[in-house]
Specification:
alpha+beta, N-terminal domain of TfIIb, GMP Synthetase, Chain A, domain 3, 2 domains, 3-stranded mixed sheet, 3 helices
Length: 141
């Protein structure tokens, strides 16, 4: 397969360090969240960065499906909640809940659209059978 785009970022210091993209646009300090024993205040963390990327990517996939199917909606939003969980073997894993708001459609249409977006989104395809991803929709204006 041919890469359409490649992003690169370098982390120094792990969860209590710095992350910088190869083009310098992203250059941010990361810290362990308070709930994991870190200072957390005023800093982001890997789970927030993953949530931001997944939400943006999924919203794009959702809008692609909406456009392809020529459905009239309002502006969509996607919220990704990324949880760090401890596994039974003592390791760690992620779990995700994606909530899409798709105004001006029925709940049934919204559920169909989010399922189709889940098949198209690169993050969803990357996490398929790797992490638990729950989908939910709202249809508020």
């Amino acid at each position: 397969m041919e890469a359409l785009y490649t992003a690169a970022a370098t982390a120094t210091g792990g969860r209590n360090g710095q992350v910088k993209s190869s083009d310098g646009v992203l250059d941010i300090e990361v810290r362990m969240p308070k709930s994991l024993g870190g200072s957390g205040d005023g800093y982001t963390n890997p789970e927030q960065l993953f949530a931001a990327g997944y939400a943006a990517c999924f919203d794009s996939a959702l809008n692609l499906i909406i456009k392809t199917e020529k459905i009239k909606t309002g502006t969509t939003t996607v919220t990704a909640e990324v949880s760090l969980i401890k596994t039974e073997t003592g390791g760690f894993a992620l779990a995700v809940t994606l909530t899409a708001n798709i105004p001006r459609v029925t709940s049934e249409q919204a559920n169909e659209l989010i399922e189709k977006a889940h098949q198209v989104c690169p993050y969803s395809n990357a996490t398929h059978n790797n992490i638990d991803v729950q989908l939910s929709v709202t249809v508020n204006d």
